[in-house]
Amino acid sequence: MLEIHFQPPESLSPARLPLLTLALILALHCGRAGADEPSPATGRLGAIVDFTEENDAAVGTDRHYTQGARLAYLGGDNQMPAWVLNVSQALPALGLDVDACRLGFEAGQDIYTPENLAATSLIANDRPYAGWLYTGLVLQRRGATGAGQIPVLENLRLDLGVIGPESLAEDAQVWFHRKWGEHWPQGWDNQLRTEPGFAVRYQRAWRLAWQRGAQTIADFIPHAGMSLGNVDTSFRVGGMGRLGWNLPEDFGIQTIHSLAVPDGGRLLDDDHHPVGFYFFAGAEGSAVLYTTFLDGNLFSAGPHVTRVPFVGELQGGAALVLDRVEIAATLAFRTREFVGQAGNDGYGSLVMKYKF
To answer: What is the rounded distance in angstroms from the CA atom of residue 19 to the CA atom of residue 53?
Structure first.
């Protein structure tokens, strides 16, 4: 079998990807460029930065998708280089009246393991050890449908990174287990081999809101999209419902595996920023065509399992919305992802936003 071995140049070491992304975030926020027109439908939004931490310890397990972390940044409405704005305007609208565009960056790491962390040999019938370290670009377009004037959000993302030992997943997990006095996993010698990872992701979401006076008390946010790449090739459809007090005019909480990144921000044209809170619940179904974390390396032979083609996920949680800070906690439960999996998996997700 043909084997291709990928060795990233030292100057582009994966360990530097989060630092590079942070530098781009600071450069974008401090060196604002491009158009600066208000969004007609919802007002002009400022920049936001969010950090998402996910771990299956929240549901009492230590297996499969066991840890994820992501830092993401979205600039303010239309605050981007002119050529990026021109690219956005050239993209097909597909029935969307675009009010505002936002450019963002992200960096993150995912960690996957089998259930038995004490075994040193390959466990052929369980998810292989794997790590994914990445950085990415995000383009968001916000507006409304031409006919019904329903608020719409589009996300287009390009994630690039590395899979294998250079993802630093082993280092991160072993350090964490030692830090907390736990037995560290013994089977990382059997992880997926080094290769580049990529995914192009697209999602469109719609927001149907219900108000009581000036307050939004409930909404429903259906979404649909797809991903293409060795990290994830899938089609997805789902929705989220929210109920609370002073719901923000955004499109809900996103986990790391969502096709979208968190949106929202402060309305720069309005000095009134009310406190709010809400509860939410959602579901998503995925038709998975390929993922290297189950199917094995794309460019070489290695550990793999038989993927289940249709996967569902249920989510629920609560969020607190302040002037500049928003905090949300989610519990998610996912159906079996591969043949022979002993049971469904779950994880907890904590999202913290800061609004400039």
So the answer is: 18
What letter would DSSP give residue 338? B
Residues 6+ apart with CB under 8 A from 148: none
CB 63 within 8 Å of CB 115: yes
User: What kind and span of H or E run contains 21?
Assistant: helix 17-30
Average pLDDT over residues 155-171: 97
Distance separating alpha carbons of residues 44 and 13, to the nearest angstrom: 38
Which DSSP letter does residue 164 get? S
| 350 bridge partner residues | 53, 329
CA distances from 39 to 11, 35, 85, 298 (A): 40, 11, 14, 43
pLDDT band at 156 (very low <50, low <70, confident <90, very high): very high
The span from the first CA to the last CA of the chain, in angstroms, equals 52
Task: Mention the CATH class of domain 10-355.
Answer: mainly beta
List the one residue out of 6, 1, 2 whose CA is nearest residue 197: 6
Round to whole Å and give the CA distance between 104 and 39: 18
Q: What is the pLDDT of residue 10?
A: 41
Q: Is 257 within 8 Å of 102 (Cβ atoms)? A: no
Please give the pLDDT value at position 215: 82
Residues 6+ apart with CB under 8 A from 83: none
31: confidence class by pLDDT, cuts 50, 70, 90: very low
DSSP characters over 266-304: -BTT-S----EEEEEEEEEEEEEEE-HHHH--SSS----
What's at 254, amino acid-wise? Q
